Amino acid sequence: MDSGIGLLAAAAAIRRLRPDADLVLSSDPDGMPWGPRTPEDVTAHALACALAAAEHRPQALIVACNTATVHALPALRAALEPAVPVIGTVPAIKPAAAGARKVAIWATPATTGSPYQRGLIEDFGNGAEITEVPCPGLADAVDRADEAATAGAVAAAAALTPSDVEAVVLGCTHYELVADRIRAALAAPALLYGSADAVAAQTLRRIGAEPRPDAAPTGSLAVILSGRAGTVTPEALAYAEGRSLGAAAAPAAAEAC
């Protein structure tokens, strides 16, 4: 679940590990963006998305949204666990700082400088020199698949990123969809750290499932848009992750993850 199509990265990562997994994508196009909302409002929207997905009897729920993880994770876990494990998304500061001395964190303006992000830096920064880079408008541009707006937002964030940075943490799930464009915009080569692969692996561990990337690609796909049954949107199909998921045409099975 996510406010928009930021969930595509985690869903595609699950699909790579388990091509036989039935997936339910629950987003909130009517209510996005969530970033400017109050914590209470974010929680209400996240709960609505989660409960709509829960009607498909999932084995786990991935909160593929940093904003929802910050504000709504306790409420989501209270509503769904222990029956449905809830897996949040945290910026990959720890692995980035473990391997680099100069790190930049790209995140939404609301997250940049927040007590939440500062706490993660304090806990997992490993003494690295860390620069917080606000990326106004980038998530919204990615969600609209607006090439010009995405290019402008990426260029603006790259201009705020130190030229000698060694690693960039993608602190919003939407950013992983345009990782190649971010990499190309940086002044020097840098490793990019997203969260999707780690979240997918943790999800399988939580439900006791093993990765089986060679499994038959029988997994189905259901799409929920602000509580209504829908289909993969044209905006989602603008990205490789969306196209890889859009190939699944069968209705979701009762047991989905």
TrEMBL record:
Keywords: Isomerase. InterPro entries: Asp/Glu/hydantoin_racemase, Asp/Glu_race, Asp/Glu_racemase_AS_1. It comes from the Bacteria. Gene3D superfamilies: 3.40.50.1860. SUPFAM superfamilies: Aspartate/glutamate racemase. It holds the Pfam family Asp_Glu_race. One of its GO terms (molecular function) is glutamate racemase activity. One of its GO terms (biological process) is peptidoglycan biosynthetic process. This is Glutamate racemase. It comes from Actinacidiphila glaucinigra. The lineage of its organism: Bacteria, Bacillati, Actinomycetota, Actinomycetes, Kitasatosporales.
